[in-house]
Specification:
The protein has helices at about 10-15, 35-45, 60-75, 85-95, 160-175, 195-205, 220, 235-240, 245-250, 265-275, 350-355, 395-405, 440-450, 475-480; strands spanning about 25, 30, 55, 80, 100-105, 140-150, 155-160, 185, 210, 230, 255-260, 280-285, 290, 305, 310-315, 330-335, 345, 360-370, 375-380, 385-390, 390-395, 410-420, 420-430, 460-465. By secondary structure, the protein is an alpha/beta fold. Among the domains are: about 1-205, 3-Layer(aba) Sandwich (Rossmann fold), CATH 3.40.50; about 385-480, ANL, C-terminal domain (GMP Synthetase, Chain A, domain 3). The strands form 6 sheets. The protein has a 9-stranded mixed β-sheet with strand order 2-1-9-8-10-11-12-13-14. Strand 3 (about 55), helix 3 and strand 4 (about 80) form a beta-alpha-beta unit. It is globular. The structure holds methylmalonyl-coenzyme A and adenosine monophosphate.
């Protein structure tokens, strides 16, 4: 296939050749068949004013699925907007992406024409309901722009083509034996790769049914019959603490964990309770899913397995040489393949720092590989990229936000180990002694939740007399991580 081939992403939604089901897509109890979804998605696409990107308020609703699918079928880039983002972050996403319209309820910080999202054919006037699929765009066209955090600055738009999404999903179909016979269940956010691209769009490409549980609680998973369950480690940690819910998942075909490291004790506990060794996979917004254990292969606790589909990996030492595949020597993980992103929107220099002209992307993760090609992720190079509950959060953006409060003189944000969230966001702040009280700590948390997003709020504030700095004045975060308490 050449790079200019027309897109076939969302094949099961385009062709309707696989068996349909009245509940092919269920979100929080509301359902559509694939034929029904296609009709309303095409009608939504027909309402778009131009070919500009569409900002979609990505609540976990059927409307979000319709709007995202409608954009992709129409060949128009889609920009999911986190529903918990504050006005400033929402405005940044909308402005930076160049979105020309808005799909969702009115929102502070958004001044774009609104396109109504239909959810049932009855909502769509007959003249708007031709269900004629628009001609597919080239595979190399942008499908989606996903905003994600870096170590500093505002979130960056990760530009992914139809080809990246298709090849990424088809690699997972091979690794997991994922077919139209599956029912996928999850309750993850619909503005990231895991919940939206894999859970929803992957199902619409491969023809599996998908059920979004509203929230990713153990009880909701237990109450949802499915063959494949997706969760971030926090979800699996909570399931492991609820034996009744865990046992309800025993009949599944696969339980899949990703987006952050799955603690080995959680893997072991779930094996006892469910009889399943979880499949663990590793990916990034920029790369889709690079590594995974296989449905038909070894599952090793603490390891993320083999390259998925057309993904290739290499591990490099500081001197640029590849490290030996001995299962011990740590190297910087690099990835190449057709599922890679095309760059950060409007940021060619930042893109060039991580994506080489040879097509290799530097992930910023440290890993080891053994002689069988099995990979283990050891950690990240930078302490400034935090993973909390599976969300990627930049320490820098939280620090910038907190420094806007007049009481905060200096601040350093760290991700400290947390049994539930993997890492919890802790803000170490220098303030005048008379200001250092619970009221200010609460205000700092609320400020970040409102200014950035709810999931970026510090879970804890610690007032300290000073921050450790080196001779250059740089805060020594690694030293702070070594100090208990
Ligand atoms: C939530 N709450 C709020 C708000 N939002 N309150 C006020 N304002 C808000 N905006 C309340 C909830 O109602 C709830 O209250 C409480 O806060 C906690 O909510 P919960 O959602 O349970 O949050 P949590 O416990 O902090 O989060 C755990 C979580 C969440 C559910 C696992 O972190 C999550 O959804 N993570 C998924 C992240 C993800 O999908 N990452 C994938 C990135 P109450 O309890 O009273 O009801 S993509 C990626 O990494 C790649 C490519 C990959 O490899 O997958
Ligand atoms: P995001 O762009 O939100 O997908 O975050 C990507 C980052 O999540 C990666 O660079 C890793 O640091 C981390 N990550 C994802 N999956 C795993 C995993 N299975 N084990 C360890 N880290 C992971």
């Amino acid at each position: 296939m050449t790079s200019s081939s027309p897109t076939t992403f969302l094949r099961a939604l385009r062709d309707l050749d696989l068996p349909d089901h009245p509940e092919a897509v269920v979100v929080d109890g509301r359902a559509l068949s694939r034929a029904g979804l296609r009709a309303v998605a095409v009608a939504f696409g027909a309402r778009l004013p131009d070919a500009g990107p569409v900002a979609v308020f990505a609540e976990p609703t059927l409307e979000t699925v319709v709007a995202v699918s409608g954009c992709l079928l129409a060949g128009v880039p889609v920009v999911p907007v986190p529903p918990d983002a504050g006005p400033a972050e929402t405005a940044h996403v909308v402005t930076d992406s160049g979105a020309t319209c808005w799909a969702g309820p009115p929102r502070e910080g958004v001044d774009l024409p609104v396109v109504e999202v239909p959810t049932v054919a009855d909502d769509v006037p007959a003249r708007d309901r031709p269900d004629d699929l628009p001609a597919p765009v080239a595979e190399t066209e942008t499908a989606i722009v996903l905003y994600t955090s870096g170590t500093t600055g505002a979130p960056k738009g990760v530009v992914l083509s139809h080809r990246a999404l298709r090849t990424g999903i088809e690699g997972l179909a091979d690794a997991w034996g994922w077919t139209g016979h599956d029912v996928v269940a999850h309750g993850l956010p619909l503005f990231h790769t895991h919940g939206l691209v894999l859970g929803v769009l992957g199902s619409l490409h491969l023809g599996s049914r998908v059920v979004h549980t509203g929230r990713p609680t153990p009880q909701a998973y237990a109450a949802t019959p499915a063959t494949v369950y997706f969760g971030v480690p926090t979800v699996w940690t909570r399931v492991a603490r609820d034996p009744e819910a865990a046992r309800a998942l025993s009949g599944a075909r696969l339980l899949v964990s990703g987006s952050a490291p799955l603690p080995v004790p959680v893997f072991e506990r779930l094996r006892e309770l469910t009889g399943h060794a979880l499949v663990e996979r590793y990916g990034m917004t920029e790369t889709m899913i690079t590594l995974s254990t296989r449905a038909d292969g070894e599952r090793r606790p603490g390891w993320v397995g083999l390259p998925v589909g057309e993904a290739r990996t290499r591990l490099r030492a500081e001197d640029g040489h590849e490290v030996p595949a001995d299962g011990e020597t740590v190297g910087r993980l690099e990835v190449s393949g057709p599922m890679l992103f095309d760059g950060y929107l409007n940021l060619p220099e930042t893109t060039a720092e991580v994506l080489g002209p040879d097509g290799w992307f530097a992930t910023g993760d440290l890993a080891v590989v053994d002689a069988d090609g099995f990979h283990r992720i050891v950690g990240r190079e930078s302490v400034d990229l935090i993973k909390s509950g599976g969300y990627r959060i930049g320490a820098g953006e939280i620090e910038t936000s907190l420094l806007a409060l007049p009481e905060v003189q200096e601040v350093a944000v760290l991700g400290l180990p947390d049994e539930d969230l993997g890492q919890r966001i802790v803000a170490y702040a220098v303030v005048a002694p008379e200001d250092a009280d619970d009221a200010l700590a609460a205000r700092m948390v609320e400020h970040v939740a409102a200014d950035l997003s709810w999931h970026k709020r510090p879970r804890e504030v610690r007032f300290v007399p000073s921050l450790p700095r080196n001779a250059m004045g740089k805060v020594q975060k690694k030293l702070m991580l070594d100090v208990p308490g």
